[in-house]
Automatic annotation (TrEMBL):
PROSITE patterns: HTH_TETR_2. InterPro entries: Homeodomain-like_sf (IPR009057), HTH-type_TetR-like_transc_reg (IPR050109), HTH_TetR (IPR001647). It comes from Solicola gregarius. Residues 37-56 bind DNA. Residues 14-74 form the HTH tetR-type domain. Residues 1-21 are annotated as: Disordered. One of its GO terms (molecular function) is transcription cis-regulatory region binding. Keywords: DNA-binding, Transcription, Transcription regulation. Transmembrane segments: none annotated. This is TetR/AcrR family transcriptional regulator.
Length: 214
């Protein structure tokens, strides 16, 4: 008896969140992130100011609303890796699929959005925090998956290397976007870069965190 109302409430919340984010992004792209206030976003989205802050604790997260997905992406790829597949192979496979799909989570945001980010020191700083959070989440997942003892350094070393490659590829995608390259050529370029980068890590991480074949 309660399943349907709960489902409807959750759908309503999701729709409200998406509407706020959509209106905020439109304003940010029009006028620049730093020039738009929370009150203006609330008015445009036709909600109370408190509603905006309830859904988005920080103004930066209105612009970077895929932050949760971004942070969890690498850890999830490790947890979902196939039997016999290493963490390195799983992350390489996941990245190449995302680049082929021109996924915004790996940087395919379009020139207007990319410029909005790079023009705002606050957004650049928040994006840096997301990268750092993603590395920590990956280190935690690697520690869990390998049964590492508390404080063991290897999961953090591997996470620094693997997340570092993803950060480099994200930055390269952003740079090429700002330079005016189209998404197809960017995807081809970063795919080639990714293959070089992941191959460079193969000697040290190719046999690390391999999922057992049961």
């Amino acid at each position: 008896m309660t399943t349907q109302p709960t489902g409807l409430r959750e759908r309503k919340k999701r729709q409200t969140r998406e509407s706020i984010s959509r209106h905020a992004t439109h304003l940010f792209l029009q006028r620049g992130f730093d020039q738009v206030t929370i009150a203006e976003i609330a008015e445009t989205a036709q909600v109370a100011k408190m509603t905006v802050t309830n859904y988005f604790a920080r103004k930066e997260d209105l612009a970077l609303d895929l932050g949760d997905t971004f942070v969890s992406m690498l850890a999830n790829a490790v947890r979902d890796r196939r039997p016999g597949e290493s963490a390195l192979a799983a992350l390489g496979r996941t990245y190449l699929a995302a680049a082929d799909a021109q996924d915004p989570v790996v940087g395919f945001s379009g020139p207007e959005f990319a410029r909005m980010i790079t023009d705002s020191p606050r957004l650049v700083a928040r994006l840096r925090e997301f990268h750092d959070d993603r590395e920590r989440a990956l280190a935690s997942a690697l520690a869990d998956e390998t049964g590492a003892a508390q404080g063991e350094v290897m999961p953090r070393v591997a996470a620094a290397l693997l997340a570092g490659v993803h950060r480099l590829l994200f930055d390269e995608t952003l740079r090429r976007t700002l330079d005016g390259d189209d998404n197809g050529s960017i995807a081809a370029a970063v795919t080639a870069d990714a293959e070089v980068a992941f191959a460079a890590l193969e000697p040290s991480l190719g046999s690390y965190a391999v999922r057992p074949i049961s």
